[in-house]
Amino acid sequence: METVIGIDIGTQSTKAVVIDRQGRILAEHGQGYRVDTPRPLWAEQWPNVWWEAVLNCIRACLEASEVDPRGVKGLCVSSLYGGSGIPVDAEIQPVHPCLIWMDRRAEAQVQWVKEHIDLTRLGSVTGNGVDSYYGFTKMMWLKAERPEIWKRTRYLLPPNSYINYRLSGEIAIDHSSAGNIGGVYDLAARDWSTEMLEALGLEQDKMPSRLVDSGATVGGLLPALADELGLPAGIPVIAGGVDAAMATLAAGATRPGNHVAMIGTSMCWGVINQHVDADQGLISMPHVLNGDRDLYTFGGALTAGASVSWFVDTLCGEDRAAAGEHGSVYDRLEPPARELPPGADGLLFLPYLMGERSPVWDARASACFIGLSLYHRRPHLYRAVLEGVTFALRHNMEAGSQQGEVLDPYLVVVGGATRSNLWMQIIADVTQLPVYTYREDVEAALGAGLLAGQAVDLLDISATNRHGNLDERATPDPQAAARYDELFALYCQLYPTLKPIMHRLSDAGAMTAH
Questions:
Q1: Is the dihedral of CA 292, 100, 417, 460 positive or negative?
Q2: CATH number, domain with residue 147
Q3: What residue numbers bound the domain in which 179 lies?
Q4: Same domain, 112 and 195
Q5: How far apart are CA 217 and CA 248, in angstroms?
Q6: Which residues touch 502 (CB under 8 Å, ≥6 apart)?
Q7: Residue 196's pLDDT is what?
Q8: Which residues contact 235 (CB under 8 A, 6 or more apart)?
Q9: Residue 266: inside a domain
Q10: b/e 415-427 (16+ beta carbons within 10 angstroms → b)
Q11: Are residues 449 and 407 in the same domain?
């Protein structure tokens, strides 16, 4: 049986899947690991952790009874947003950990950019803004703070580019990963921006010169590695791309107007479009499908499901104890929360538990409940948390709609949040769109597999925008939607009103810590 392998290197685990020409998953395997956080706000990883996980996941998948290793026709790697990329020397050996997307150490570089670079020009060239999230600010930090590392660095490789090199011996970077660096990539030209690289003081020769589409073949699987794994030598290694775009592809986003919300630990809402406005505060890059034409624009909340987990871990010990070892605390929280009216009887939650990304871009933003009274109980707070994260979703969706793209009249939601019927109804009411979810697990590894399948003519992604079974989970209730419109307006006023206090508290906390 002919198959392909899709691999996703995530922040906390790597996963591989084997799929057939119908897109069915025949085998899957995951391996977990940890992020290194040597200092507050730092987050880095050594790439060998990813490489070992990739090999182990491939081996485990190939051992499945339904999989014939000789029938594998190609493979593709999706990866977390690698921020700075992996600094490698002339022998392509890593010389420093990769500063990944959640690393926030480059705040001084952000300030320098704001003071010395024309941000309007930056936005018009790159389609992106400036924040310590972006890889170009992390690169600037490496140059300023680790000059000896910078001097030894030949290339800065995104995680999937590095793994592709280990698989094929070829160096290339896909356009989605290049665009996600921000700052140094010309979104219209689909090439490095010499103008911006020079303005930022970054050397262009450290950026791989070979830029390819996500569906392009980087090279063939090395013979020695093929023998070790039991795969055919020379099968295509497909470039791949950034995991958020890959997961959106897996959820069926193949044409402009398709949009998907992924809600797990964090939240990411993304839409396929063909033009961007950097002033709206979202992140843009070429899409992993039809990347010469289509863009993937997304925004996200840092703590979505993490807000729910924080609430349960911090305030629901009694419910957890009552649920017992085999029960679920959510089974106790959801029924009473479902009986409450929209707005949880006058309670709002701002879900900025680790600062916030788009569209506010403020590392010093903080979370709050407002409207709290003696009347409120845990179900009120639980519902308010779900509503607050959903308001953050709508905040990003409205920023996206300002770019003029006509969105599909429904919303596909994937991720752990889909287990909650209450949350799906809240999302429908707040966004005023019908909500659909997949019966299958739809993840970035599947997106990588689909891209590999199309690259080797095993399947056609564009034939349908559904790669599984979609179910309608919730439709908007007009009365609830009207109430949420009022509450969303108040939600949008909270951050600008509280921002000065948030910053003073953040500064005071930093002074106390030192």
A1: positive
A2: 3.30.420.40
A3: 3-251+442-461
A4: yes
A5: 21
A6: 352, 362, 364, 365, 366
A7: 98
A8: 72, 73, 74, 75, 220, 221, 226
A9: no
A10: bebbebebbbbbb
A11: no
Would residue 374 count as lying in a domain?
yes
pTM > 0.90: yes
Copy the structure tokens of residue 225. 């590695």
Residues 77 and 139 in one domain: yes
Distances, alpha carbon 74 to alpha carbons 4, 334, 342, 455, in Å: 5, 44, 49, 8
| pLDDT on residue 507 | 87
**What is the token pair recorded at 444?**
């970035």
* Per-residue pLDDT tens digits for 341-391: 999 999 999 999 989 999 999 989 999 999 999 999 999 999 999 999 999
Could you give the CA distance from residue 209 to residue 193 in angstroms, rounded to a whole number?
Answer: 12
Q: Convert the pLDDT of each residue in 174-207 to its tens digit.
A: 999 999 999 999 999 999 999 999 999 999 999 9
Peptide bond into 359 cis (omega under 30): yes
Looking at the 3D structure of the chain, how many domains does it have?
2
Indicate whether 452 and 409 sit together in one domain.
no
Whether 290 maps to a domain, the answer reads no
Which residues does 221 contact at the CB level (< 8 Å), separation at least 6?
Answer: 75, 167, 168, 231, 232, 233, 234, 235, 236, 237
